[in-house]
Amino acid sequence: MVFSLLAGLVAVLPILIGGLKGTFYSIDPEVMYVGNALSYIKAHQIQYFDHPGTPSILSLAYLLWPLRIYAKLIAQTPFVLWSLGHYDIVFFYLRLWQGIVFCLGVFLFLKAVNSITNSKLVVLLAWTVMLLFSPVLRLGSGITPETLSFLMISVWLWLLARFLKKPEVDLIPVLSLISGLAVANKFTNLFLVLASVTLAFTLKSLSTGQRLANSLIAMIAAATGFVAGTWPIRDKYPLLFGWVIKLLTSTEIHAGGEKAIFDWLSYKQSVLAVHHQEPWLALVVVLALLTSVFLGQLRVLVGIFTMGVAIFAKYPLTYYQLANYLILVFLLSALFSRLNRFLMMGLILILLFHVRSNMFNHLRSNSLAITKTTALETFVKEHPAEKATLWEWGRAKDPAILLTTSPDWHGSMFAVEKDALKRPVYELYPIPTDKVFDLCWDQLYIQKVSVKSFLDKYPGQPLVYNIIPGSDDMILVKSSHCDDRGR
């Protein structure tokens, strides 16, 4: 419990220090998940389906119940309208909940390790190796599906530990059901299903027919878990599986790159990128393979998740490897338990220096982003527009609300709430290029990298600009075109 709380504290500390003004230090993809949770609360509709991410969206919707009660009984305001009017509170609240879910995931992960090793020293070593993977700490503050995935994986491992200690055929459908739910949350959890289904073949007490029958039951349980987890988006299954096919037949992330299932040059570049970001991943894979040599019981599982690492290395996003990394670390703990006690202590001391570096980098990067967001939010509050404000993009409350209520994402779902808020704030890019100055506005918040292009596009307009102090990468462009036209 102490280790899980320490990891959770490091993850959420910048959020606690930054408070409400800093809570929008990261808005992509958070606004999409929160927006879909609000959409589900209002109309039981979820527009997003890419990952699919549905269980995470549902969990966010249910976690908002305390605020829904407050909005109804005390604020006496429709909840979605209240949420958009107090979006910083909603975000801050959900970030704290993500920290709690993360702590619970760490606790169950370590409990699973302790269950198969019965060694506190191995638990500490597994904790340090887990935190060598830098995406792990981000799970405690980001409003992303990976946080719930971590909890699901930890529950799966806790049950797997029971199975490894005392193989019981009744556990296989449960493991399969959880694996199906995990895939409904994130496709990168796919190899949990394969592992669950193959567990029946490890039971030597069963006949070949019984093994096949139990594997079939496991497949049905996994499919049931997936359907249950994605039920609210069942009408989008054709789009969902069409998207999966696009991902499989593209060489880069988000269905980019060449139209091919595999391209060696692209794959090589991706592997090198992943290794550069997370060099410990390769070492964990090698040691896990070594474990399978000494512990034949784990050979199949090690092989499955090593294959998972190889397949998802097609994409240079390290958090795609979360499930594979965590499960290989869990399996590796079986090898740790065979090490000399003093050797383990030495390894822990060495690895703690690297964990300390990961924690420091996490705290520094998040604190810096939160400081910039706080500076931007303070500037926006102290410099209200006289007429209207445009936003190109920015890590702040206004663009977060604009993205959440964007017709491109939710159609007219939030049109009523948007009108009720009566906020003279608009997105820049949906406005046609030749119509930008037909709208009466006097302020535009734009990224530093984009301002030159914008100014060059409208050389005849009365525009002045200045860097927003403390934001580092944001510019305020002021226009007097409304005044010049007598409006």
Structure described in brief:
The protein folds into two domains: 361 residues, no CATH class; 113 residues, no CATH class. By secondary structure, it is mainly alpha-helical.
Number of domains: 2
Question: What's the helix-strand series?
Answer: HHHHHHHHHHHHHHHHHHEHHHEEHEEH
Kindly state the number of beta strands. Answer: 5
Strand coverage percent: under 5%
Name the average pLDDT: 89
Number of helices: 23
Oligomeric state, counting identical vs distinct chains? single chain
State the end-to-end distance.
63 Å
The geometry reads as: globular
The profile of the biggest β sheet is: 5 strands, mixed
Rg over CA atoms, rounded to whole Å, is: 25 Å
| Unreliable segments of 5+ consecutive residues | none
Give the % helix: 55-70%
Strand order in the sheet with the most strands:
2-1-3-5-4
